[in-house]
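Title: Prediction job returns without error message
Component: structure pipeline
Severity: low
Priority: P3
Assignee: unassigned

Description:
Job completed but the reporter wants confirmation the result is attached to the right record. Sequence as submitted:
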Amino acid sequence: MPAFSVIALIRALLVWVLIMAAESAQGAVRRILTSEAFDFAVRQASVLLGVAVIFAITWLTMPWMRIRSTVGALLVGDLWVILTVAFEVGLGRALGQSWDRILADYNLLEGGLMPLGLIAMALTPWAVLRLQAGRGRDLDGRGTAP
């Protein structure tokens, strides 16, 4: 039995697009409102804000995505990470950023927090699935009957 259906995969991809739109809007606002002097510190803080945004979007859309298993949730999280890294690198290069600038966000030893954000992204669908199951929702997102 597959970990999730084709419909669930398509919906998970659409949710990822929503997450990227929210993250891109956050990045645009950050670029407008911050000076170069505080850029790295603000990028670090935005990773934490990004994790909260990813969690909120996943929480709201998990019933609609119809991910019904731990394996399915972990696979969706992994897919989101792969797509996100490709998106980040592609967008960074399209905006003329150097490889050093792009990779700085991924260097934990230099304070880049992106790997932690990606780990959180990978685990968010699983965590939301578990938390929502613990709140009395069945796997379709409806409340369970007493």
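Comment from assignee: result matches the submitted record. The radius of gyration is 17 Å.
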